[in-house]
Design a protein that fits this description.
The complex is a heterodimer of chains A (267) and B (316).
Chain A: H1 2-12, H2 14-40, H3 42-49, H4 54-59, H5 69-104, H6 106-111, H7 117-149, H8 156-184, H9 187-210, H10 222-226, H11 229-234, H12 239-262
Helix pairs in contact in A: 1-7, 2-5, 2-7, 5-7, 5-8, 5-9, 7-8, 7-12, 8-9, 8-12
Chain B: E1 3-14, E2 17-28, E3 32-36, H1 43-50, E4 58-63, H2 72-76, E5 79-82, H3 94-104, H4 113-118, H5 132-144, E6 150-154, H6 162-177, E7 181-186, H7 189-195, E8 198-203, E9 206-212, H8 213-217, E10 221-228, E11 242-247, E12 251-257, H9 261-269, E13 272-278, H10 282-289, E14 294-295, E15 301-303
Classes of the chains: A mainly alpha (267), B alpha/beta (316).
């Protein structure tokens, strides 16, 4: 029965997943195509970058040489495009089975059958995991594919490992959003909360990087853990970040499941 | 007779807002039970508690011997439900949707087909492209396609054309004949009158009457329609046992319970052009039991008050 519900979840996710996949594929491909040009003009680009304020650079994750594939990928995708894509995907998918479908009446229809609440939401969570994994794979896959075509020399293994970190970041967003959606049963509130928190974390991360006195604030921001520059350039994984994303995702989803089984379903 | 549904002091509050209060009712196995009330009376709240979607604030409900909140999965194997405004997935066609919901209920693929044929439903059209009436047909097909012993329906025939409403009533009759129980919430009074064995009337969250349709209709109550030569004076029908259901001045509709002589004497004093006396239908009874302001189709107040101590106010 959970299989039926899971398949429906994937079917319902086709349009949002397809649209976001197209965005990351096109953007990632274009960025990857530009990498050899950047590499050939490293010195000039670095001189150009010095013109910008430090805050501006930090805001876009430009904390090293753009000639390094890891910094390049983190700057243009890891802490820029991916959080936007992951947030949109996670918000749409994680608010749908509870808040949106309760408002729409679909949840009533499904949950008046032998399908239990746990299996209903479990199938939806599984759908989020799969869709976010697919998006992460398409993101790094597009960069790698175009990178290979233009002779960028990207390390496929390290990029795929970076994709896994991006996926965990997306899962963490989905876990939290899922919990807020179950608590509020209001799609607007849940989406607004998640978007607001992400924006706040983004700003906090900038402040932490440009103000040494507030460096500690960085630990409160998911963006601190979303950088995959070291992983791609040196093969060094940020296990703390991986652990934080995993714990947040699993805790968010588990709490959602527990709470959803116990709460009144009000339209 | 075993009870399919037992409500004991069933109460639900939404914060300080009233849902339903102290509902006491038994629905017998194999009967069609009507649950009658206007929007906001508490019908949907009651159904949501019966389905285990919300918990009671106090009291209890047992459905087919099961607690709907703690034993929901077991209960849902024996129950089919149709909501008042089902949130179908618009991109799916009716066939896929019905197959999906059927599969969740353990039904064979295409179990819906005989019912779709009877209701003249085209299953290949995406639900979002269906008219209101055709979407409602999807719901009706969905609720009848299984073999569950209890069917719970909330406003099931809304939007159906008269032919399909008749087919719906036939399906209800067949369901009852098969020994299954139907709990039918509605504000479609003729439908309830034609489909149900017993009717509960809910008013502002409280049950005010449970009786067989026969008993309700034949309880020494008569419906009197009058055409007067000139409007009656205010309070002309403030008589024992007389309830004014509507009045437009010269056209007056009253209901008389018990002794009709006071009314006949009063009519002798009035310029009566025409009179029709009949057994009231459920609609008359509903207004009789329902306390509050009732607006006519043109928005004018046509009756206020309840059965006991009813105050009447003729529209100008």
């Amino acid at each position: 029965m959970i299989g039926l519900s899971f398949r429906l979840e994937l079917r319902r996710s086709r349009i949002i997943a397809g649209g976001l996949a197209l965005v990351v594929l096109v953007y990632g491909g274009l960025i990857a195509a530009l990498y050899p040009i950047l590499l050939a003009n490293t010195a000039m680009v670095q001189d150009y970058m010095k013109l910008f304020p430090k805050e501006f650079m930090a805001a876009f994750g430009m904390t090293g040489s753009l000639a390094d594939p890891g910094i390049f990928f983190t700057t243009y995708i890891g802490t820029f495009l991916w959080p936007i894509v992951a947030a949109i995907g996670a918000i749409v998918l994680a608010t749908r089975p509870t808040a949106a479908d309760a408002e729409r009446g679909w949840a009533d229809l499904s949950l008046a059958t032998p399908l239990t609440r746990g299996r209903y939401l479990g199938a939806a969570i599984l759908g989020q995991v799969v869709v976010l994994a697919t998006l992460a794979l398409v993101t790094v896959g597009g960069v790698l594919a175009v990178g290979t075509l233009v002779g960028a020399g990207f390390d496929a293994g390290r990029f795929l490992a970076a994709g896994a970190v991006l996926w965990l970041f997306g899962c963490a967003i989905a876990g939290v959003t899922s919990l807020v959606a179950v608590i509020t049963l209001n799609r607007g509130v849940a989406a607004g909360f998640t978007a607001g928190v992400l924006i706040a974390m983004y700003l906090v991360n900038i402040v932490a990087q440009v103000q040494p006195d507030f460096a500690w604030l960085g630990y409160l921001s998911a963006f601190r853990y979303a950088g995959v520059g070291a992983l791609i350039d040196r093969g060094t994984a940020d296990w703390v970040g991986i652990g934080v994303f995993t714990v947040v995702a699993v805790a968010g989803w588990t709490a959602s499941l527990v709470l959803f089984r116990r709460r009144d379903l009000l339209p | 007779m075993p009870e399919a549904i037992e409500l004991r002091s069933l109460t639900r509050w939404y914060g300080k807002r009233r849902g339903v209060i102290d509902l006491e009712a038994d629905v017998h196995e194999g009967e069609v039970f009507g649950f009658l009330g206007p929007n906001g009376a508490g019908k949907t709240t009651t159904i949501r508690m019966l389905l285990g979607l919300i918990r009671p604030s106090a009291g209890s409900a047992r459905i087919l011997g099961l607690d709907p909140w703690t034993q929901a999965p077991s209960l849902h194997r024996r129950l089919a439900h149709l909501g008042s405004d089902p949130g179908y997935l618009g991109d799916m066609d009716a066939a896929s949707l019905l197959d999906y919901l059927g599969a969740l209920r353990g039904l064979q693929k295409g179990a819906w087909r005989p019912f779709a044929d009877r209701l003249d439903l085209d299953p290949s059209v995406p639900v979002k492209k269906l008219s209101r009436g055709n979407r409602q047909k999807v719901g009706v097909v969905q609720v009848f396609m299984g073999r569950e012993p209890l069917l719970v329906m909330d406003e099931p025939s809304t939007g159906l054309d008269p032919l399909m409403q008749r087919e719906f009533l036939t399906l209800v009759a067949e369901t009852r004949a098969a020994g299954r129980t139907v709990f039918l919430s509605s504000h479609n009074l003729p439908e309830v009158e034609r489909a149900c064995d017993r009717v509960a009337i809910i008013r502002e969250g409280r049950l005010v009457k449970i009786a067989t349709v026969t008993a309700l209709v034949g309880d020494h109550t008569r419906s009197v329609n009058l055409v007067l030569g000139r409007p009656a004076a205010e309070g002309a029908f403030a008589l024992p046992g007389v309830t004014v259901l509507s009045s437009t001045g010269q056209d007056v509709h009253v209901m008389v319970r018990g002794d009709v002589n006071p009314l006949l004497r009063r009519l002798g004093e009035l310029d009566v052009r025409d009179i029709a006396i009949s057994t009231p239908d459920v609609e008359d009874l509903f207004f009789h039991y329902y306390e509050g302001t009732v607006a006519g189709s043109d928005g004018r107040v046509v009756a206020t008050g309840g059965a006991e101590g009813i105050a009447t106010e003729a529209a100008p």
